[in-house]
Amino acid sequence: MVFVILSVLCSVSVGILLKLAKKKQYSFYQIISINYLIAWFLTKIIYQPVLKTDVSSTTKSIIISLSFLLPIIFVFQAKAIKYSGIVKTDIAQRMSLFISILFSFFIVHEQINQFKWIGIFIAFLAIFLTFYRKNDAEYAKKNKWYFLPLVLLGFGIIDILFKNVASLKEIQFTELLFLVFPGAGLVSLFISGYYLLKGNEKFNKTNVLWGLGVGLLNFGNISFYIKAHQVLSNNPSTVFASMNMGVITLGSLVGILIFKEKVNRWNYLGLFLSLVAIGLITYSQFLN
């Protein structure tokens, strides 16, 4: 469980750095660009993956899709943290699991037992309550709440793409990251360059240091998560549940206690129900 704890700490720390970057008005786009270059370099040095080019057209299309989606969703995540806080963003990211479950049911026609159905229903309710806020036009204008469902949808799609690659069994996870990270870095560099050319932002060496920090933590999150699955290979559901619940719980504590994020009683109920939903969905895996 040590690797799970380390993965949770890295995941939540990424959110903390993005939150602090917003307060200091650093560039999300430059930080995210450096992040992917650092993550790619560390993947190459530590895992020494083999560069595979003889993969199927399906795998190539997934790699290209991930190269575009990862930096874009990272921007949405940063924006969601900026406008809605770490608490709601972490819950949105982790509750994206129900999208891949619905995909498995409606597209792949996977059988879903009653516990998983109950978990999905509670997940919908948890998402509604977590995002709930009294109708306030000024709040909607300032906080741009729509980044939360974009995070939810985006991470759900990314999860589906990763699962599709895993089912093909022609490329290892580290080899996939070795191909995706430079693509994601290139896309994020284009985005960053666009804002630099428009004059909306200026290059700042400090952004490089923050990108280095985010890249190290992002890589750590992925590496420790892989290690956890390797050590607990007979209990993948334990890793899944511990990771999701750990990120939601720790992220919520950090957001509420350290950053003093405003959370109403309905949001607290949504937080509790999100943990219940993950628990039920995880338990349902043992019944299949």
UniProtKB/TrEMBL annotation:
One of its GO terms (cellular component) is membrane. It holds the Pfam family EamA. Residues 2-131 form the EamA domain. Gene3D superfamilies: 1.10.3730.20. SUPFAM superfamilies: Multidrug resistance efflux transporter EmrE. It comes from the Bacteria. InterPro entries: EamA_dom, EmrE-like. Keywords: Membrane, Transmembrane, Transmembrane helix. The keyword Transmembrane helix applies. The keyword Transmembrane helix applies. The chain crosses the membrane at residues 6-21, 28-47, 59-79, 91-109, 115-133, 145-164, 176-196, 208-226, 238-259, 266-286. This is EamA domain-containing protein. It comes from Flavobacterium indicum (strain DSM 17447 / CIP 109464 / GPTSA100-9).
